[in-house]
Amino acid sequence: MGNLIFEQVLNSLQFGIMLFLIASGLTLIFGVMNFINLAHGSFFMIGAYLAAWIAGLSGSFWLGLLGALPLTALLGFLLEWLVLRRLYQKDHMVQVLATFALILICNDAVRMIWGPQPLPLNMPSAFSGPVLLFGLPYSSFRLLVMALGIVVALALYFLINRTRMGMWVRAGANNLEMVGAMGINIRLLFRLVFSLGLMLAALAGIMLGPMVAVQAGMGDDVLILAFVVVVIGGIGSVPGAAVGALVVGVVDTLGRGLLPTLLSLFLSADAAASVGPAIGSMMIYLVMIAVLFWRPSGLFPARS
Amino acid sequence: MNRIVTMAVAALFASASTTYAAEVVKVGFLTTLSGPASAPGVDERDGFTLALKTLGGKLGGVAAELIVVDDQFSPDAAKQGADRLIKRDKVDILSGFVYSNILLAVAPAAFASKTVVISANAGPAQLAGAGCSSYFFSASYQNDAAHEAAGKLMADKGYQRVAMIAPNYPAGKDAAGGFKRFLKKEPVLELFPKLGQLDFATEIAQLRAANIDALYFFLPGGMGVNFVKQYAAAGMDAKIVRVMPAYDADQQMLSNGDLIAGVANTGEWSSDLPNAENRAFVTAFVKEYGHQPSMFAAQAYDAAMLINAAVKAVGGKVDNREALIAALKAAKFNSLRGNFKFAANHFPIQNQYARVVSKGADGKYVNHMTATLLSDHVDVYADQCKMP
């Protein structure tokens, strides 16, 4: 039982850390630019596709990872310059419609370029086996994903709290007009924040790629989870996104892992087997509703 | 008045046309062709196409028109696709189908429009018992069958602590029912992840904690491939015996190589089934597509051969649905599984075999038949079926 809980906690952390990578970009873009980017999940997908494509050509996962990150950032930069910057002054509904259209365009574009079948992206061979962790064999790739996520989260913390750009970002999330009045180049700030956010999403896509499947639409479900994280954590708050991501990771994993067992104490085995998974997958939304009820602006609201 | 006459004439023509042989037999082929769940659908399409090619583009001597539509692994998209095939293309027969939830979403509209449905894979219990329809035929199996055989295999070996995992959808429930019916005891752990789930960290942790001797896993398409990879990456005990249904243990799964070696699987077909048709099919398939056929391809090939035999028997008059249905029911053809016959509910009466993944002479992994688990097996739902 102890081992089971330990392993499930590791799984929750791994899932939560991945969600954080996606949600932190989303919350930064929303917080600083006041821009709803539904196409955020598409860059999760594009990053994974580019990595799988480069890894397929070169035979190396690491080359795929290193090549896909700047390429995704470049694509994001172009997209911001061509389309998105025209949307900043529009209201949120227009932004939602336009970026939803981008999701559909991106999904069909990858289908046209790489075909309807998923692209293979395998774990690097050095990390395809298990390692012993206090006597428990655990996937070394999942540990790598966790370690990478923690490093990125710390770097992000340092960037936001200890650097000049981070100061702009924090100020921008609080009061953008004042930041502009202080003589900061808001255009540039937007572009940097946007590219950074997309790179984080792409990184998550690349690291999750070998564990799920690199396929058209892989970003859509993740986007919904990322929004749940952002809403729980408080829109615009990176620490909020971190806490929200861990909450969603833990609730989802434990909900799916333990609820059926718990329910079987009260219900017949058959009923528990069918009700358990259904409620398990609902758990994170129930938590979101609870948070919205007691803390309508999230756990760590960026604007006070 | 004029209009009534026109309508009457049109009606006359419509009824008159039924007495002539159709110029073309239209087959709509609705299956999953995109996303990680699509490998079985692609195999089905390839198997059916190969059969048509073997038959010179004809079914029962009549020119055949095959319209392939991707259901996108979504019941909604499948309904729209089926609607187009039935109403616009006016297909005589609807075939394909990998996933039971898709088939169940499409079936009512097809039956209502008197379109004959011939499943090349999905065989849900809902269509086998009280809900059976004279318009439905399974060229594959009733969903429970492979799972019943797996239960028997495990019961015969006497494993003590058994677990099973299957997706939370109609065929997953059929799997649990069938498996337990022949296992004759309760598994220590039953897991039902969401259909299409690709990350199994949570489930693998539970399996590890359950301290099992044997695991039955029914995870179709990309789910199973991911599960096997993650199972190995998580360092699960190699002593745990793994059993799976045979249709998921072919082509796509075999690409996992060493990770899948020695896994037992159960089903009604194997590439080394000793009959002439099967040998010719395997050779032709490898020549055409450059890889070994899967059970999905074999079933779709049989579906085409079944249609061929029935259309021939009615002399190409497929518009007379009652005759076509009677001909399908009585169709005599050499299937890849040997003789082919239907039970009262239009599901095949057939053997279930045990196979095992082992290394072939060329170093690639293949499935070898090891035993016959069930002979001339009829599903448990057939008795409840009352055909009109």
Descriptive overview:
The complex is a heterodimer of chains A (304) and B (388). Chain A has 304 residues and is mostly helical. Chain A has one domain (8-118, 126-294). Chain A is 76% helix and 3% strand. Chain A has a two-stranded antiparallel ribbon. The N and C termini of chain A lie far apart (43 Å). The model of chain A has no long low-confidence stretch (mean pLDDT 89). Chain B is α/β, with parallel strands linked by helices and 388 residues long. Chain B folds into two domains: 22-143 and 274-350, 3-Layer(aba) Sandwich (Rossmann fold); 144-271 and 352-382, Rossmann fold (3-Layer(aba) Sandwich), CATH 3.40.50. In chain B, strands 7, 8, 9, 10, 11, 12, 13 and 14 form an eight-stranded mixed β-sheet that branches. Chain B has a six-stranded mixed β-sheet with strand order 2-3-1-4-5-6, sandwiched between helices. In chain B, helix 8 links the parallel strand 9 (214-217) and strand 10. The model of chain B is unreliable at 5-19 (pLDDT under 50). The A-B interface holds A 1, 3-4, 7-8, 11, 14-15, 111, 116-118, 123, 128-131, 137-142, 208, 211-213, 215-217, 253, 256-257, 260, 269, 273-274, 276-278, 281 and B 33-36, 38-39, 42, 70, 168, 173, 176, 186, 190-194, 198-199, 201-203, 205-206, 208-209, 222, 226, 229-230, 232-236.
User: How big a fraction of the residues of chain A is strand?
Assistant: under 5%
Q: Overall 3D geometry of chain B? A: globular
Q: Helix/strand/pairing class of chain B, anyone?
A: alpha/beta
Poorly predicted segments of chain A: none
Largest sheet of chain B: 8 strands, mixed
Based on secondary structure, the structural category of chain A is mainly alpha
Low-confidence parts of chain B, pLDDT < 50 over ≥5 residues? 5-19
Q: Give the overall shape of chain A.
A: globular
The CATH topology name of the largest domain in chain B reads Rossmann fold
N- to C-terminal distance of chain A = 43 Å
Termini of chain B, distance in Å? 39 Å
For the largest beta-sheet of chain A, the strand count, sense and barrel status come to:
2 strands, antiparallel
| Radius of gyration over C-alpha positions of chain A, nearest whole angstrom | 20 Å
Number of strands of chain A: 2
Instruction: Estimate what percentage of residues of chain B fall within beta strands.
Output: 15-25%
Can you write the helix and strand succession of chain A as a string? Answer: HHHHEEHHHHHHH
Tally of domains of chain A: 1
Regarding quaternary structure, what we see is heterodimer
What would you give as the CATH superfamily of the largest domain in chain B?
Response regulator
Order of helices and strands of chain B: HEHEEHEHEEHEHEHEHEHEHHHEEE
